Amino acid sequence: MARLADYFVLVAFGPHPRGSGEGQGQILQRFPEKDWEDNPFPQGIELFCQPSGWQLCPERNPPTFFVAVLTDINSERHYCACLTFWEPVESTQEVVCTEDATEKEEEADEGGQARLSSTAPVQPGQLFAPKTLVLVSRLDHTEVFRNSLGLIYAIHVEGLNVCLENVIGNLLTCTVPLAGGSQRTISLGAGDRQVIQTPLVDSLPVSRCSVALLFRQLGITNVLSLFCAALTEHKVLFLSRSYQRLADACRGLLALLFPLRYSFTYVPILPAQLLEVLSTPTPFIIGVNAAFQAETQELLDVIIADLDGGTVTVPECVHIPPLPEPLQSQTHNVLSMVLDPELELADLAFPPPTTSASSLKMQDKELRAVFLRLFAQLLQGYRWCLHIVRIHPEPVIRFHKAAFLGQRGLVEDDFLMKVLEGMAFAGFVSERGVPYRSTDLFDELVAHEVARMRADENHPHRVLRHVQELAEQLYKNENPYPAVAMHKVQRPGEASHLRRTHRPFPRLDEGTVQWIVDQAAAKMQGAPPAVKAERRTTVPSGPPMTAILERCSGPHINSARRLEVVRNCISYVFEGKMLEAKKLLPAVLRALKGRAARRCLAHELHLHVQQNRAVLDHQQFDFVVRMMNCCLQDCTSLDEHGIAAALLPLVTAFCRKLSPGVTQFAYSCVQEHVVWSTPQFWEAMFYGDVQTHIRALYLEPSDDRVSPSQEVGETQSQDDERSALDVASEQRRLWPTLSREKQQELVQKEESTVFSQAIHYANRMSYLLLPLDSSKSRLLRERAGLGDLESASNSLVTNSMAGSVAESYDTESGFEDAETCDVAGAVVRFINRFVDKVCTESGVTSDHLKGLHVMVPDIVQMHIETLEAVHRESKRLPPIQKPKLLRPRLLPGEECVLDGLRVYLLPDGREEGVGGSGGGPALLPAEGAVFLTTYRVIFTGMPTDPLVGDQVVVRSFPVAALTKEKRISVQTPVDQLLQDGLQLRSCTFQLLKMAFDEEVGSDSAELFRKQLHKLRYPPDIRGTFAFTLGSAHTPGRPPRVTKDKTPSLRTLSRNLVKNAKKTIARQHVTRKKYNPPGWENRGQPPPEDQEDEISVSEELEPSTLTPSSALKPSDRMTMSSLVERACCRDYQRLGLGTLSSSLSRAKSEPFRISPVNRMYAICRSYPGLLIVPQSIQDNALQRVSRCYRQNRFPVVCWRSGRSKAVLLRSGGLHGKGVVGLFKAQNTPSPGQAQTDSSSLEQEKYLQAVVSSMPRYTDSSGRNTLSSFSSTHMGGHGKWSSVRASGRSSGLGADVGSRLAGRDLLSTPHTNGAPPDSGFLRPQRAALYIIGDKAQLKGVRPDPLQQWELVPIEVFEARQVKASFKKLLKACVPGCPAVESSSTSFLRSLEDSEWLIQIHKLLQISVLVVELLDSGSSVLVSLEDGWDITTQVVSLVQLLSDPFYRTLEGFRLLVEKEWLSFGHRFSHRGAHTLAGQSSGFTPVFLQFLDCVHQVHLQFPMEFEFSQFYLKFLGYHHASRRFRTFLLDSDYERIELGLLYEEKGERRGQLACRSVWEYVDRLSKRTPMFYNYTYAPEDTEVLRPYSNVSNLKVWDFYTEETLAEGPPYDWELAQGPPEPPEEERPDGGAPQSRRRVVWPCYDSRPRVQPDAISRLLEELQRLETELGRPERWKDTWDRVKAAQRLEGRQDGRGTPSSLLVSTVPHHRRSLGVYLQEGPVGSTLSLSLDSDQSSGSTTSSSRQAARRSTSTLYSQFQTAESENRSYEGTLYKKGAFMKPWKARWFVLDKTKHQLRYYDHRVDTECKGVIDLAEVEAVAPGTPTIGAPKTVDEKAFFDVKTTRRVYNFCAQDVPSAQQWVDRIQSCLSDA
pLDDT tens for residues 24-49? Predict the structure, then answer.
């Protein structure tokens, strides 16, 4: 029995002691006056009675009631029921208080009324003071308290004839039963009756309706997030204007948390004076009146639930982890079914009549049942993870958190992790973990109902039924006797509080009350003490755990087959069948990624351990250790799956004998795993073992129980099945019955069991923490949990660890060797911390603990000594036989710098090498060696997987291509040891991810890195491979001086440089951004006397710019050399000028070749000869050059043969220059004279360019370009992406609209045809200057100028660099992507923005091509004029001029635009040490990618193949050839490179020029030749540039592991295979079949295309006949024969073998073979955006539907199958005339083709007969031939349109109709 109420208190309003406006509570009376012994009077009641503060009130308020909760120091809760009513202020009180009240400002009190302000006079009796009756109890019977206090108030107000003292005395002496579902009727002696019911089970919370109200106020989602917040220890604050609602909400939230108890601050109603409690750092659940909402605003980490507004506000910094799926969504669904049952029926057509909703009380229980189920699902099987550490005197229980998370499959789950770490769960374990106690609903649910819940998951109605069943039980728990609960309590009348008459609450007589209390106490003393009868039982454990969501572990779902493999391998190892085991090992290591296989391994190994020891031979030991390491490498520090726990006994069991007396155990080889240094792992292991031993302690058959053997057997088997918890439960049941001595004995036994385990674990930990080799201590330092192991010093390598410690230990000199004791000390500290923790928790006596602390250093010390011997002996073991190193093939002249270092090549993010989705074998990881040569880094080796076969794996790249080198720490694939590794990434798209073998010392690895770095960044360009290769002298030795009579070219080039230097010294240098220092000074600061950079004189000396007559003879020879350069050859081809003797042209020629830069005086990065307008004098050029960056003034680089427009290039403008010209009102200041003169020169220069254009006439008004084919700009408005977005309005009409606006009336022109007259309006600018938007800001065009500025936004070189870096990572990722490879590749490709840059380049180039084609000249003037300018200018020439699409032309283009015009290859490729910081910027590679995109779209326009582009892309970065070294012609001359090729003819030395190499190779093999080359002479290519039209270049993604990159031809040619007849075994000829593996074999070599194959065959046969012929001659002969054949046919025009009959616009758009829309017929799909009504484009769809056009690609017009042919008139499309055409009916291809005339080879159109619907007689229309009979007209109706035909006469018309009909019927 317990007291219903402990104290009754009367609290009244009193003035504040310091005279402030607020009043304060005063306790008038309290009963009983003495504190109860078992329950002292709680402090602070007066604050909680009026939480908003004590204030007077101008009118009577109705009485209020609420229950506040106080928590005492012992965390006992006291319920304070407060009933407040208002009484008029007494005059004595009034005098004191009115002053206070009047001083106060007007403000709202908690009732909401405004108090009187100071101005209103206070009448006596106008103010009312609050008075509160308080009942303090430890029981929570809110309704009883409300009734009791209400009765007292009613007696007082109604003036009933009842003594108040008796009522209060009865109240204080009333006792109620504690629990067990009993009920008690009480009466307080005022004719009242109340029934008190106690819940059936005390542990279940009583919620009444609070949970249902909470859901009504806040909604499902909000309550769920509050629930998760409370469980994960966040701060929760409730706001409401009602105190009762605050109390209910807090009560409801706590009820939801059951079975966990909330153990932090819990204050349902917080008084205003204590608001600072909210800033406490600990979690809480607190309720505060909404009036104080403002004070809660600045709380940053508090979740605020506003009950009145129905909102929950979570601050940004707070993350509430949600419930794990699928529980979150399941719970949400069930809650909505309970709260809103009509939701399910809302959509029904015939909803049932009204559903009966549960009562609020019942709904409350249903909601709680949902959460009870949730906890049962979350914590299912928790009892299987309890470790019982002690049973007597009190149970000590620990929870194995990691095992629980692992088995539930929730290791990653944030929510459960936090819940298990929280205080509430710790309380749950200590309270509910006890094996022998009374049980409740939760215990039964979690033990017996789990299977049912699992089965019901997908059946909502069954779930609901279960919820209702649980709700019934919960309801019954709160209301055991619902029918009898009859209350009879007097209530005050309505509005009784407003009556005037009543007197104040009387002062009660303390004596009377005390006497009643004493009487009751005397009675109670005689009665026996009330003992709470508990029914205690063994708590059921329930079924073992299952994963909360069955997740399959990806590709490693452990099938029985995998486990079988593991078992077989282990049995082979122990049976000594090593070869078999070796074959299975890779499969086993793969299988061990799965959890079941790891468990299986541990289980199988256990079977081979006898008496705790298993001695193995060396090979067996290695195998076992490898498998163990593989298992442990995936263990996290928590070891959730118990793998490390299972292996721990094994690592101390398996061992091998190294020498007599020295045994090495497996633990010394498996130390490098993070799990061993995690204290939590060791604790869990320790408690698990202790539990096992304590269970065994009580299961031992006692001596007095001797029985026959069979009985023993039976009891044993029963014993085996009993879990430790069952044993503990039994022992707890027996404990009270044992004698004192027996109890003591059991306690002692348990304590010593724990103690012996602690010693055992100290040993085990020292085994796994002390390294075998003292030099490996770094691994210890890197580990996490070892605390201060970080302090261990690095120099441990130097001394033998055990020896020195042993000595210092023995001598006890006090000066222990600092280094060694450090590791030992760290391990000792780690073990001591562990021992302290577990021993105090499991109740080991302090004496034993002290003993342990003394023991630990000795254990560590002894172990160190034994390890020393093991380490010494293990070094003497013969090394394991490793595979022989495979030496790589080297190029002639390539030398090995570092011989092979043994490494493993590991798989990177590309899945092909490991046999990914493409199938194929797992070639990686491979075991072999890495070699460093003067040219390459090469890996050669064999796959570690023996099932792959003897495939040699080669991966290499040029040293010069290395872009990133980083050290990594990786596990070797075979031994699973953590090793140092290197990851090397190259710009040729190779990645070497290597782990060094353990035999490679760290110094060898470091040497490799240093040598690699030295070769990658030589101090001087002469150190690169291209120079050292085949050179007569090594870089160190000076070259021999040749004394020739005639000056050699070498001498000439030296003279030239000397002269150039003199000239430069005299040159007036304007500010220069970049000026490459001379070679002697690269990498050093320039010497002080160097005059290059200093301007000596203002004016140029006249002698500098003399014509050639003044040149010295040597200079003349230099001139002739310059003339031989590529530029000049090209200028002559373009008709831009030839050099006459006077170096000048006839005046009629608009341009001339100027030698002004022959000494590289004006611009060092330009070639020696430049094309400039005829009218400009050489000396003016100097001044013009000052306006441009790097002095790169505009020069002509190409002229259109047709429109005679010229293409110019220059650097960007300086701040002055054209911008200066165009700036409005540019008033020159005196200092600007020089600037203006050069600006004027510049203006003159541009004017001269404009004037030199033949079609230019000075038209009146502004010239504008009207319409630019939107086909290529990708539709309207796309131009804006190139153009500057924010153009100044000064430009007048928007250039973009002029460039991109499509003239809709003009007929669309086919690609490549001359534009229609409507395409370009006659008024247009003669010169367009394409410049960077940033430079042309604020430019105002002068309407009289004939040029127009086109500002565009371009990317900078650094953006190219950044983009390329990302592209590299996308194409060659360092590690596998998390998501599926295709999406991650595409995403990272998009992030790199590489294709966007290519799109931009193509877009700008196509624009320039259009402008040039229309007759306007273009000046490209971007950045410094050597990166993007070069890209654009080269692309424009390639697109406009078919010559550059030949092998020779492309070479010329690269030599002219890239080499001569000074693209900085060495700077952009970071060739030397000086350029290391700038990094690799592949501007040239980007250009090649653009060419590749065009090549894809126009495969028949290029003489060279795609392989040629890849070849150049590879070698421009490889530094094998000298072609792409240095930054300009000037630097090449300075090094004597430019002319050396012409003078001294070397013998068959290695090629120094890439072009020479290409020429040599082309003679041998057609690898660079494109067989489908069939050019159109006039063809201007206009490729599509949209990103959707671009393809990722396979140069970036393809790889050949058989031989490495195929671009070094000599290396790629493997040894020839013997022909069939000469097989060495002499048997029958074997099959020539070969398996071609993706990513391994080079497909073009293994499966050459048909033509290459035939050419090879021809060459072989002719060689056998003794008259070898080059492939090119053979090819040319075949083509010639083809042409002749055509001529003899009588109507052939000379045509190439592959001339195409595809319509004109179509062939230039590119041919892709792909699946057609109908069936799977191949069709010709066109990459075209063009859609117009013209025949050509409508026949495009026809072509898609049929295979016909595919054939016409590859057959000549002459040899076609022509079923019937003749002339017909055909009516053109709408508004077009009738025309006579030559028609061919082709049955084979099922089509009707037509040509302009009979001998025409070019088909003008095709009508696919598959689309013909009908052939019908026609009628003549306007424009039809007059002489023809009406009946000769007929129409052919297709699905698209009707074709009108007319034959020469009626019979031939009939003939045609019949033929067509028969064709249709045949089909």
Answer: 888 999 988 888 888 889 888 989 99
